[in-house]
Amino acid sequence: MASRPSSCGAIAVLLAGDAITFAQAREVLDLVTGRDDDPERVVDARGMRQVSDAGELAPIVAEVLARCPDQAQQYRDGNKKVVGFLVGQCMKASKGSGNPKLFNRLLTQRLEG
Length: 113
Description:
- With 113 residues, the protein is mainly alpha-helical.
- The protein is 68% helix and 0% strand.
C-alpha cells in the first residue's frame, strides 16, 4: 500500500528544513507507508529530529577539536578532506542528533578563524 501524498509532503518539509537527514526520510517513509501515522509524530517519537541550533552544537565542536588536535592541524596545513572525519566525530559525540551540515560549517569557521 502506498503512503498518502500528505505524508510524502510532510516528509519533504522535514527534509527541506534539515529536521531529518535523507536516510532518515527514507526510514520515516517506510514507517508511515500503509499506515495512518503522521511523519512529524514518528520523527519525534523516535528521537530522529536533528539539532540545528549552533549554540547547542558549538560545545561539541570545541570538544572534538580539543580531542583531535592532529586532524585540526592537518586541516590548517591544507588537508580540507579531514573535516569529514571531524564531522563524523561530532556526529558520534552528539549520538547522531546533530545537523552534519551545521557541524561542517562550525568546524570550518573554527579551523579557519
